Amino acid sequence: MGLLRAYWFTGHVTASDGSVGTGSMGAGFVWLDRSKCGSERIGREEEGTSSGRAEIGAYAAILRRTPDHEDLVTATDSEVLCRVVGRWVGQGGKASLANTADADILEYILAKLAARIAAKSRTFLVKVKAHRGEPLNEGADDLAEAGRELEKEGENSRWQDRTTRVVYPYYDRTSRQWKKGTWTKTVRNAARRGAAESLMEERLQIGANKWRKGLFETRSRDTDGDQQMLNHNWRSDAPSKWDMIATGKWIQKAAWNRWVTESERDQPHKTPITSTWTADFLTREGEGRKTIGDWLRDKTVPWKARRRLLQTNAGVFPCEARLQRWGRHPDGICELCKRCREMGLKLLGGRPARGTTGHLQSSVCRLQAPAATGAHNTCFQRVQDDMSKAKSVCRDWEFVSKGTEISLGKFVSEYFTPLTLGLQTGVVSTEDTDEIWDAAKEEAMEKTKGRETRRARADSPMVDETEVEKSFWLSRPDGWVINRVTKKIILLEFKRTSDCGESYFQDMWRVAEQQHVPILAGLRALAEERGWEIEVVPMVAGQRSVREKEWLEALRLFGIGKEDGQRILGRLGRTLLDEHEKLFGSYWRLTFGPSSSMQQLLGKGISVRTSRPPQGG
Ligand SMILES: [Zn+2]
After folding, report:
1. N or C: which end of the chain has fewer CB within 10 A?
2. Is 387:398 a contact under the CB 8 Å cutoff?
3. 252-271 as b/e: b if 16+ CB within 10 A
4. 3-state DSSP call for residue 294?
């Protein structure tokens, strides 16, 4: 005000301010010459309070007290007031009061301003910073607060006329209060949230009802063939359920529903815990659902990609298994796998698999395998890189496999032998390698036999020891981490797996742990006598989600704290979703688009038909 020489202005020098509190709005106004200072209460709080309405009301109060032909300057700290009034200055007919919340006051202000223009007087609105000691503004601020306390009746209470707008009560989470408002963004969000929460409660209620039924009967029927569930037998656990009832926790319905469904998730089950597998997935807590929400809201992600994630979340992505359930596909078997078989390519498991969303994202589907492996590597390298760079990571850990892959053979020659023997240079001693293989042989042969049995569906497959040894030395865990101080070596095994079923985490964790038993057996034979320890740390991520608690635990092994851990998981979650989308893009191209990947697989010079094979073929 001072800089603008407003204090020496020849007309009225004034300031207005608004104040908003719980269920009331007030306006304050001051004149530099102290002639007409005062407060007003601004009404219609039944339709919700807003600071903008209070500010606009305060300016109206000043205009009302100023004769139209006298010059006026007003200081305000309200951005809203300047914007709302500014929109009408020199307007060309586009501005309208139709959708303005405070049209009643604004209409008055505009009429006043028009009258002032007609009277050839000057009107200025000056934006000042709030609470910076500008004396006029401070004075108006105090009076505005006083305005909120005024009686609702009387001449100092204004703008009370209700509109025909519907008023919605809603719960405000920040202030933990029930509030009222018209159909604004705040109310819309509250409504959305409330609807989502009631849907969630409803699903959990279904789960709790199922749980109760389980007290008297056992479940065995698989109602949803779309998901590949492990072949667990349902066990009766009625006694432990009665124990849970004895806790009396059922008095609080919402908490109880949550508790029993959580306990069910940990049990093997063939039918969904809640209403559907999809509802199971979406009601599972602690799995970084926020990342999915952020991704779906992200405008830089193409809408087709966002739609695809919605489709997979809702379990309606039109893969073969789903099409079959809709009666639009003869057998639900993966068409890509069928194509491979037609071309005489070997299939994992010996025959085409069901075309589920889990299948088409895994390397089991041979045509999708390059993309699936790529997704796995991208996600793992992201995590490993973030782990090694985390502020809280213990610097003793050396992530030697960062950005690369190290086979067992290479690891033994470059790190294991020199480290455990305390050597400066890498020398491969054949003694070491022989001893390692001797210790690992049995486990390695067993593992290969088991795999061959499954693949060839034969009881006693032929397994060549030299071949097994060769692939043993070539085997590559995802990561190697070394701690020279505590003499520890950790093998990281990352799994990116279908997260439709509840038990995905434990199941895959076990697979990852078992996967490197031969390596552990081999290396431990030498390491233990040299004072070193070797361990596998499985890291299991869902295709769309991450289990926070378990991951944070794993990260803590490397000294990584909760805050860093959550940041790492957030980034992993985002990468998972990006890769999830890439895999579906690849599936789409392979199924309907030019089959360039197919040509790559077969080599150049071979033409491939791009249409789908006839149905049922
Ligand atoms: Zn397939």
Report:
1. C
2. no
3. eeeebbbbbbbebbeebbbb
4. helix
The two tokens of residue 590 are: 């392979």
Burial class (CB in 10 A: 0-12, 13-18, 19+), 240: exposed
Cβ(104)–Cβ(159) under 8 Å?
Answer: yes
- Alpha-carbon span 521 to 184, nearest angstrom: 65
Choose between 472 and 168: higher pLDDT. Answer: 472
What residues contact 26, with CB distance under 8 A and at least 6 apart?
18, 19, 20, 39, 40, 41, 42, 54, 144, 145, 146, 147, 148, 149, 150
CB 313 within 8 A of CB 281: yes
Structure tokens at 10: 């020849």
Best mean pLDDT range from 153-157, 234-238, 507-511: 507-511
Write the pLDDT tens digit of every residue in 45-66.
887 788 888 999 999 999 999 9
Q: Which two tokens stand for residue 224?
A: 């949803």
Element of type H or E holding 178: strand 177-181
d(C-alpha 550, C-alpha 286), whole Å: 10
Q: Is 539 helix (H, G, I), strand (E, B) or coil?
A: strand
Greater pLDDT, 516 or 227: 516
Where is pLDDT greater, at 76 or 606? 76
Q: Cα of 252 to ligand 1 centre, how many Å?
A: 47
For residue 399, pLDDT over 90 is answered with yes
The closest of 144, 138, 142, 134 to 7, measured between CA atoms, is 134
Please tell me what DSSP assigns to residue 47: G
Q: Quick check: 75 and 62 in contact, CB under 8 A?
A: no
Backbone angles phi, psi at 443, to 5 degrees: -60, -45
Give the distance (Å) from ligand 1 centre to CA of residue 338.
7
Q: How far is the CA of 218 from the centre of ligand 1 (A)?
A: 34
Q: How far is the CA of 333 from the centre of ligand 1 (A)?
A: 8
Question: Residue ranges of the alpha helices (H) in 158-287?
Answer: 185-213, 238-246, 253-265, 277-283
Q: According to the model, what pLDDT value does residue 556 have?
A: 94
Start and end residues for every CATH 3.30.420.10 domain found in the chain: 6-163
In this predicted structure, what is the pLDDT of residue 606?
Answer: 43
What is the Å distance from ligand 1's center to 600 Cα?
17
What's the gap in Å between 251 CA and the centre of ligand 1?
49
Structure tokens at 110: 């505009």
State in Å: Cα 337 to ligand 1 middle: 4
Strand order in the sheet with 157-158: 123-127, 72-76, 12-21, 24-31, 38-42, 157-158
276-332 tens-digit pLDDT: 767 777 777 666 667 787 878 888 888 888 888 888 877 788 889 888 888 888 998
Options 3.40.50.150, 3.30.420.10, 3.40.1190.10, 3.40.50.620; CATH of 6-163:
3.30.420.10
* Integer CA distances (angstroms), 569 to 86, 218, 291, 496, 504, in order: 46, 38, 9, 14, 18
| 53: enclosing H helix or E strand | helix 51-64
